[in-house]
Amino acid sequence: MHHEGTHTLVFSGLFLFALLMVCWFLFGATHIFYAILALAVIVYTIMVNFFRCPIRFFNGDTEGLVIAPADGKIVVLEEVQENEYFHDKRIMVSIFMSLLNVHANWFPVDGHIKSVKHEDGNFHKAWLPKASLENERSTIIIETPEGHNILVRQVAGAMARRIVSYAHENDQCYIDEHLGFIKFGSRVDMYLPLGSEILVSLGQKTTGDTTIIAKLPKNNG
């Protein structure tokens, strides 16, 4: 279980327990009480499932690879003009995380963290294109050992209200380490250099710290 969910699970559990006690005194052992009990169990089970944090280690050489930073589905895979940091064309790969996905995020590459920037914003549905630029987001720039600059962006969704990032400027980062956590539906964007060999397809499901997203070009970009 991810430590980011500790307070939420404890307080939610206490609230649901209190609610059930009130319902017991009001309705007793009736169909109404058991229906509310079943609903409470389902809601709490979904919350526990959301905050699960599987222990994973990438099996293989990580040199030149981009590994999925999140569980979810590829919703964007296209060449775009990136005007916030690079001011040139990049390959954008976006992974949407539904309510049922693991919401822990991993670093997609080994490297040096050059920049970390958090911006408040709106809470559009995470799969919409404008969410990447208008929603609350945390942007991390990582320089790989080969000299590639990779932009990774955690984006809050319509239900998400908190982005947690463990990235710190000037730190070293590694695949298998947690990048952060986004509470409830959200997405993670990556901007890769042109010439990267993309190894996933639109609509494909990904497993964080396991699925290989791309091979970076041998020349710096």
Topology:
Elements: H1 6-27, H2 31-50, E1 65-67, E2 72-82, E3 88-97, E4 104-106, E5 111-119, H3 131-134, E6 137-143, E7 149-156, E8 163-165, E9 172-173, E10 178-182, E11 186-192, E12 197-198, E13 205-206, E14 212-215
Antiparallel strand pairs: 1-14, 2-3, 2-13, 3-11, 4-10, 5-6, 5-9, 6-7, 7-11, 8-10, 12-14
Helix pairs in contact: 1-2
3D shape: elongated
Q: How many strand segments?
A: 14
- Secondary-structure element series: HHEEEEEHEEEEEEEEE
Strand numbers in spatial order across the main sheet: 9-5-6-7-11-3-2-13
Give the number of helices: 3
Are there runs of 5+ residues with pLDDT below 50, and where?
Answer: none
Main beta sheet? 8 strands, antiparallel
Radius of gyration: 20 Å
How much β-strand is present in the residues? 25-35%
Structure classification: alpha+beta
Helix share of residues? 10-25%
Distance between the termini: 38 Å
Q: What integer is the average pLDDT? A: 84
Provide a brief overview of the structure.
The chain is of the alpha+beta class and 221 residues long. It is built from 3 helices and 14 strands.
Account of the 3D structure:
The protein is an alpha+beta fold. The protein is 21% helix and 34% strand. The chain has three helices and 14 strands. It has helices spanning 6-27, 31-50, 131-134; strands at 65-67, 72-82, 88-97, 104-106, 111-119, 137-143, 149-156, 163-165, 172-173, 178-182, 186-192, 197-198, 205-206, 212-215. Strands 9-5-6-7-11-3-2-13 form an eight-stranded antiparallel β-sheet. Strands 1-14-12 form a three-stranded antiparallel β-sheet, with no helix packed on it. Strands 4-10-8 form a three-stranded antiparallel β-sheet, with no helix packed on it.
